[in-house]
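User: Some background: our group keeps a shared notebook of sequences we're curious about, and every so often someone picks one and asks for a predicted structure to add to the entry. Today it's my turn. The entry only has the sequence so far, pasted here. Could you supply the structure so I can complete it?
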Amino acid sequence: MLETRAHRRWFLAVVVGLPGTSVAAVRGDEVLYVGGTVPNLPEGTEGRVDLSNEDKMIFSSGKGGFEIPYRSITSLEYGQKAGRRLGVAITITIWALFSKKRKHFLTIGYTIGDKPQGVVLEIAKGRPKAVITVLETRSGRKVEYESQEARKHVHG
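Assistant: Of course. Here's the predicted structure to add to the notebook entry:
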């Protein structure tokens, strides 16, 4: 019983204490930087992704941004949860508990120099196929799908 209470307190502390969490879904051209290794960019930052540059993906917002050269991308994952390669999966799990809306997460692994990096982005409902197609084409990497359901959502 004591262990159960401790777990409940920990769970509540995590839920209440998560910075920048929101249960509202992104819409249209919006993208949410859920988290990752980008310095000085708060988790939960809404912005836009520009894929028109032939060499790099550009995320921009009023709070900052980042660029990922396509040639530096090492992995792409898509699904209803954050990718296994980043330690933000707990955030996604908690968001899912409070939201009945389907979330669309893209995890991008990449390297800067010898350092592995990564970001988790929430993409608006109608955009995953277009974003994934551009990233696969320009990076030469194929996306890994979390499940058959995720694959069906993108490819119909």
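Suggested note for the entry: Confidence is low (pLDDT under 50) at residues 1-23, 83-97. Strands lie at 30-36, 45-50, 56-61, 64-69, 73-79, 105-112, 115-123, 143-145.
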